[in-house]
Design goal:
Blueprint (H helix, E strand, L loop, with lengths): L2 E5 L4 E6 L4 H10 L5 E5 L5 H12 L3 E5 L2 E5 L10 H4 L7 H10 L1 E5 L12 H9 L3 E5 L2 E5 L7 E3 L5 H11 L5 E5 L5 H12 L3 E3 L5 E5 L7 E4 L4 H14 E7 L7 H10 L2 E5 L2 E5 L8 E3 L11 H8 L5 E5 L8 H8 L3 E5 L2 E5 L8 E3 L3 H13 L3 E5 L2 H6 L3 H7 L3 E5 L2
Parallel strand pairs: 2-14, 3-13, 9-10, 17-18, 21-22
Antiparallel strand pairs: 1-22, 1-23, 3-5, 4-5, 6-8, 7-8, 10-12, 11-12, 14-16, 15-16, 18-20, 19-20
This protein binds uridine-diphosphate-2(N-acetylglucosaminyl) butyric acid (EPU).
């Protein structure tokens, strides 16, 4: 099943329920091993979760998933090296670095995988571990990180990296003494992780600020957390509604997590209404062009940069999008151009010439959000679009085909 076919220009109407956040759950699952027993609710149905389950089972952790609720029992967990076969399937496997360092004082793991959207170095994570007293050895792509005793320290992140903030939190919660993370990431997924760690008995101050203070505790108890709604999935379907919706309701959204995204939609004149945790969307004509720059939270999310580019194709004039987080996150534009768009790449910025009308083609998914951008394009294009290499999409969009079919899209999976 690695192709999606879409017949575009159907009107989308009805309700789409947003699933739990991918970028939360991928840190919550590794975090769960810091205590013996945990429950995680509202887990999305995505392959990143399957791949983390595979790693947990390999480490002899008991794992059950039923109706979106995961029970984890890591009492008999073994500290085995996480080999390439497991670690390269998703980037977030590297959260086992912080979690296993926190639990065992030692971890061996091969280089992580994930979307090819830029250099994606993780030097801040490794420097953070060293600051906490760990030794980091690198042999080809194998990382061995160990510490006799982790000790609290003050860590200044050069950039508010989501991954580094997560990994340092995981290593620091059971360190002795106090750890300070300055310039910490403030993405909502960090708050979700902190609430999980706190439910286990971790002591963390400064939630939602860029200065986190972690007071180490010697033992953590059973933990419980509900995964927050996926703000990027929500944004993607809101865009689908603005392009093709008739009272399309996107439900289970936290609108506070999408303020900068709504600001852009307002500037464009898009038709949507927020009603509690629902966003009601309608096909919007005469959209104004806009200039967007991605930034760390609460700025415009890089993960919605590619999806919104598809909307900009329908605006009346030239829009620009500057990508400030990743070096290589415009791979969607090649295929959009093949479908009839006019987008120029000028270094870290693209110029999107609207309005253009798209027609169905054979396109390829290069990374997760590029895939989302192409699905949105296919839904608005005339004729049939085939999207190949959809494994990237299945990593991050829970029940994509079902959710879209339910609201009237003509979209289905096909074997190669
Ligand atoms: N960076 C470094 N060194 C580091 C860490 C980061 O140079 O040690 C650089 C990266 O190369 C990148 C930038 O800092 O240019 C941002 O990296 P960050 O660490 O914040 O991102 P991440 O943790 O790798 C998470 C999400 C991404 C999302 C970014 C930004 C997960 C699993 N991934 O990545 O999600 O784009 O934060 O919000 O949480 C996606 O969902 O499509 C996705 C890529």
């Amino acid at each position: 099943m690695d192709k999606i076919k879409v017949i575009g220009r159907q009107t989308l109407s009805g309700k789409i329920y947003i699933s739990g956040s991918k970028n939360s759950v991928v840190s919550l699952l590794p975090a769960s091993i810091l205590s013996d027993e945990c429950v995680i609710e509202k887990v999305p149905h995505i392959s990143d979760v399957d791949n983390l389950e595979e790693i947990l089972r390999y480490l002899n952790v008991k794992f059950s998933l039923e109706s979106g609720v995961i029970h984890i029992d890591s009492r008999d967990m073994k500290n085995l090296p996480i080999i390439e076969e497991y670690s390269t399937k998703l980037r977030a496997s590297y959260y086992f670095m912080g979690a296993m360092l926190g639990r065992f004082g030692k971890v061996e793991i091969s280089f992580p995988g994930g979307c090819n959207i830029g250099a994606r170095s993780f030097d801040f994570h490794l420097k953070g571990f060293e600051k906490l007293g760990a030794k980091v050895e690198v042999h080809d792509n194998l990382y061995i990180i160990s510490a006799d005793k982790l000790k609290g320290a003050e860590i200044n992140l050069p950039f508010p990296s989501v991954g580094a903030t997560v990994n340092i939190l995981l290593a620091a919660v059971k360190a002795t003494g106090v750890t300070i993370i300055n310039n910490a990431a403030r993405e909502p997924e960090i708050e979700n992780l902190i609430s999980f760690l706190t439910s286990m008995g971790a002591k963390i101050k400064g939630v939602n600020t860029d200065r986190l203070e972690i007071i180490g505790v010697s033992k953590l108890n059973g933990g419980h957390v509900v995964v927050i709604p996926d703000r990027i999935e929500a944004g993607t379907y809101i865009l689908a509604g603005i392009m093709n919706g008739k009272d399309l309701e996107i439900c289970n959204v936290n609108p506070n997590h999408l303020k900068s995204f709504f600001d852009v939609l307002d500037k464009m004149g898009a038709l949507y209404k927020i009603d509690g945790d629902k966003v009601i969307t309608n096909r919007s004509l005469n959209l104004k062009p806009v200039n967007i720059e991605t930034a760390v939270y609460p700025g415009f999310p890089t993960d919605l940069q590619q999806p919104i580019t598809t909307l900009l194709l329908g605006a009346n004039g030239v829009s620009t999008v500057r990508e400030t987080i990743y070096e290589n996150r415009f791979q969607n534009t090649k295929y959009l151009n093949e479908m009839g768009a006019h987008i120029d790449i000028l270094g870290d910025t693209i110029k999107v010439y609207g309005p253009t009308s798209l027609s169905g083609k054979f396109v390829r998914t290069s990374d997760l959000r590029a895939g989302a951008a192409l699905v949105l394009a296919a839904l608005s294009a005339s004729g049939e679009t085939t999207i190949s290499d959809i494994k990237h999409l299945l990593r991050g969009y829970s029940d994509l085909i079902k959710k879209l079919t339910n609201v009237g899209a003509k979209i289905w999976l096909e074997d190669e």
